Amino acid sequence: MTEATIKPTPVLFTGKWHPKKFALLLAIAGIIMMFSALTSAYIVRKAAGNWLEFKLPAIFLYNTIVLIISSVTAHLGYQAYLKGQASRYRWLTAITFGLGLLFLGLQVLGWEQLKSIGVTLDGNPSGSFIYVISGVHAAHVLGGIGALLLGVKTAFGPFKQSPRRTLRIQLVNTYWHFVDALWIYLIIFFIVQ
Asked: What domain count does the chain have?
């Protein structure tokens, strides 16, 4: 297959909303509200005093780079799919999945580094907030990895372009880019606060 047979459609904000896109938008809105509440609680609790100040381990910044690269590979994989570049699409999808797993592995190492400097989940509230907020984010990444795993399975099967598969890739990529943007917000929040 040479050139694109499927035209990319905007994931959101078309004249008509696909029900699955709308459901994803509602889920993202709910997740935003949850993290807004968590970061607001962080600010309020910090102002109450008894707050341990510590420097966030650098591994959390490396994590951010890994997640940004995974968003780039997800986007490039989608573009390759649209252009009918089956092999490129397959490998970029697999790389995105692998980078998602790497993010989670680095997250665990980050938590171990926090523990090694005396910041524990059941210690000072400042550490507890870091573990809880980053852990809840990691759970959302894990959900995205599950969707990416299905995407890898589909990608390495017979290559075909269809509106259904295009929609599925759009939904997974939209969610993946969202958890990436959410992590960038959280890492900036932790550094600034």
From this structure: 1
Q: Is 185 exposed, middle or buried (0-12, 13-18, 19+ CB in 10 A)?
A: middle
- Identify whether 46 is part of a domain: no
Whether 47 contacts 170, CB under 8 Å: no
Cα(46)–Cα(53) distance, integer angstroms: 10
Closest CA to 137 of 41, 66, 31, 44: 31
Q: Is 113 helix (H, G, I), strand (E, B) or coil?
A: helix
DSSP-derived letter for residue 83 is T
Spatial separation of the C-alpha atoms in residues 114 and 89, rounded to whole Å = 37
Asked if residue 39 belongs to a domain, the reply is no
Q: CATH number, domain at 135?
A: 1.20.120.80
Is 104 within a domain?
yes
Residue 31, in any domain of the structure: no
Which residues are within 8 A (CB) of 24 and not within 5 positions of it... i.e. 6 or more apart? Answer: 171, 174, 175
Q: DSSP alpha helices (H): ranges in 53-124?
A: 59-82, 86-116
- The pLDDT tens digits of the residues spanning 98-139 come to 999 999 999 999 999 999 999 988 888 889 999 999 999 999
pTM, to two decimals: 0.87
Tokens read off for 123: 């210690």
